[in-house]
């Protein structure tokens, strides 16, 4: 048997195998007729087909097993999942160890539905040798073209272009379209791949040559591109590059831009006949478009990103100020015909390229004089009301529940922006000032070198949403407020931050986020932001972002300053102080900072000592400022957190300086604030002329704080621990001692028997397993029912286990002497719990 025969026979078997495998499954697709005839003929299975018809395997297949010659039955077309179909078929094939041969490829190719499996399952059997040869040819041409494009230079272009694939189409009738399509694709890929994010001028010129020479002179290229619906994009590219070439000719650019947008009407005409009615082929056009859309979308998106990158690199300042709004708006209109989440997102990207203020300017343009003034610099919308319609449509679409919060947010953001701009007074003055302040790229300038003054364009920079910066409310150069209403940062930024950081957490984005967060902080909208983030389910991400950005950055900045060997010189100190002012602008922000887990982490990284050393410096620095007594008191109190400032050198300096410059600092009482002895020799009225006056009250008595801490220390002296003796003393709000304890073995556990060491490799041979902590003992030894509202004086900052007991017993304040384990996990956890539970803690020293 010939090889061919074998194969045919095999095919038939395979078809039956598939039939068996898919028996009783409803058909996924239902067009029959010529395709079926063709299949039966090609695969030589008419006999088997007849067999099958006479003994149908399932009722559901019956209706499909018709006369091969009969006209196509009207079977409802159902949505088939191509991947599933392919999988099913492949599964059936693999089960029988089928080697792909004549049923060469089973793929989903909606526009090349040629053959049909007679068993009701639509598969795409590409066994057409001619078609295989065709794709081979296309592939090789594609390869060839790509190679040529890759090697093309401005010098060899003339020679190279002669060999370009699309210039040597062998069979115009049948192959041209495919080859041209392939070429268009290659040209696009090559051109767009060549565009780096920051293209240099030579690249731009080089690509310009490629495009203009390679594309512009070839009419058929445009025909193809029209079919591909990519011509708008292509024209934009073309115009952009022409613009580079002749960028002084604004009017020409303007004209070209507008004429390129008129090509949109050709798309319209494909959907409608001359009378505006939908044409018969509308469905197929939609399918064609839908198929082409993705490729087109991907490319145009890259293009838009490219435009934005040019904008950012100042190369395209001219085109963006001369805004190709109409083109973009038309493009949006096109995409709106196929509303989907993906398209909406894309539309948002496009919208963010629209220079709204300029558009609004256009809307409000009354006189022709104004219009002509404006048109010198900006493209005018040929149909301004279209934008309004579009925006309404987009708004409505975004309300669909299937639209993700992120896209909804983007739409809302843009709508708000637009609304706000519309409400602004964009009058002649504004227009003039825009025109006046719009930077000009002069002929001969190298794009990258163009100097553009920051903030001089009154409007939203057409930067794509991905890198959207929230415009700062700074006044523009004319002194007027920017024509953008203020934003409600929290609600607008939360989802933005939440979603965008996921995609892109590069430095630039981090920087932007940091700016946003900083503003949010300044506006005191933190809680709202958190609420919004929570509501929008981006809270976690937001937290992560926050962690990554503002506090870390600030902390790092401070570390950088600290690591600077020149720390003490005034400049470094001022820098640090500036960062700290932000951190310590209020007591609230300080607490808030402590709440932020990342800050605690950052603080740990910083090492407490360095951090608080800076606090001390900050305090010193603040002395140079005009501070109110209250502020001084606050600053002074802060320095008293000696637990946080273990560098007495700095601490002492700042405290002394503060004290000296704040003579009226109110010391609230000896327990709560500065822990200084009320009675000192200098003001001790017991002494007069060096002799003690025994008729007067003694004033250098022990203050409460020292007294209770003294009791704790006294109790510690009972401890048998050879290394650390801890004592604790619990005191009521009325200063009554209600519990005392020290660290020791539990009752009944002989402290001569149990271990006091801590170095044994066996955990059970170390003291930690057995010792009852001082805090625990003090709590257990209490002589009152409840400890609610009590204070605890303890020699050592409590560990996490003790913190739990403290919190649970209702103690509200912990006063400690030593923080030697401060940076150990147990103390970190302890602080976290105490903070969360609202138990205050402070370090004191005894006089
Ligand atoms: O909050 C605390 C923490 C520790 N202790 C006791 C437990 C031990 O007896 C010592 C610590 O011994 P080291 O050798 O310093 O590790 O302090 C406590 O009572 N309360």
From TrEMBL:
Belongs to the cytidine and deoxycytidylate deaminase family. It comes from Orchesella dallaii. It comes from the Eukaryota. Its cofactor is Zn(2+). Residues 703-830 form the CMP/dCMP-type deaminase domain. Keywords: Hydrolase, Metal-binding, Nucleotide biosynthesis, Zinc. Coiled coil: none annotated. This is dCMP deaminase. InterPro entries: APOBEC/CMP_deaminase_Zn-bd (IPR016192), ARM-type_fold (IPR016024), CMP_dCMP_dom (IPR002125), Cytidine_deaminase-like (IPR016193), dCMP_deaminase-rel (IPR015517), Deoxycytidylate_deaminase_dom (IPR035105). It holds the Pfam family dCMP_cyt_deam_1. Its EC number is 3.5.4.12.
